[in-house]
Amino acid sequence: MLDTWLTRELGLGVPILGAPMGGRAGGALVGEVSRAGGLGLLGAARYATPEWIARECAVARDVGGDGFGIGLMTWALYDDDTMLGAALEQRPRIVSLSFGDPAPFVERVHAAGSLVLSQVNTIEDLRVVEAAGVDLVVAQGGEAGGHTGHVGTLPLVQEILEASRVPVIAAGGIATGRGLAAVLAAGCEGAMIGTALLASPETVGPDYARSRVVEAASTDTVYTSVFDRARNQPWPHRWGGRALANAFTREWDGRDDVARADLEAAYDAADPELGVVYAGQASGLVHDSVPAGRVVTAIAADAEALLRRYRD
């Protein structure tokens, strides 16, 4: 058994968190990750509502029990923290407050009995969230899908581990037992996986998103803000998103002089060549549509076998 601070603190069978992928990680995916022994996190994207959170958490409970988390975008809470209140009503084990300073909200989360997790992309991010009183951090490398930073997972993990006063989880490019074994050997308490789950049948979203991840190579992603502009998503400038390249990115990425109205007119979520599929460089390791629980179980089992080999 892979025994870490994460498994002991949360009573998990495996040291794996399911990433709170907005628009992809709904209740079914969250529940399956938790049922397999990890902890799934619901991805409450900016368009989510309190009713959606309640409904998807009910699904997660039906599938995987009471062990789940909820991920929120910190910057989106500054003007309206309704979604945080809705999340806390569901009594999640973990609330992920990432992409911004969580200081205004940490005490409220702790008072509700949940742990606070923050993803960090730089050493400066670490200092901010530690000062805010978070319980654990995810060192999220630039290989990760969705919104992320620029520093690669391996150098970032080393830097964060050297400096952190709280437990560290790794994310970005981890999709097999080899990846999990590597970060555990480095000193992390577990891994957060996202892209490895994107082709699973439990994901929310169009069918083409699953097939495109299966077909993609690790070189088929692009780091861009063009989808945020096209969908009028006010993400802070410092965080772009890693997505699968398609005709839309080839036409519009890097063209900062283009009017937002033109991008909005060109974007089509129903078309795989004109819509967004946020996915990381681990896409090259996803070869089939495998149920989420089997993905989690296989990663953990392979990591344990590798680490046992080196211990023996």
UniProtKB/TrEMBL annotation:
Task: Please name the InterPro entries in this protein's record.
Answer: Aldolase_TIM (IPR013785), NMO (IPR004136)
- How far does the signal peptide extend, from start to end residue? none
- The entry's keywords: Flavoprotein, FMN, Monooxygenase, Oxidoreductase
Give this protein's Gene Ontology molecular function annotations.
Answer: nitronate monooxygenase activity
Specify one Pfam family. NMO
Could you name the domain of life of the organism this protein comes from?
Answer: Bacteria
Q: What is this protein called?
A: Nitronate monooxygenase
Source species: Rhodococcus triatomae
Query: Lineage from the top down?
Result: Bacteria, Bacillati, Actinomycetota, Actinomycetes, Mycobacteriales
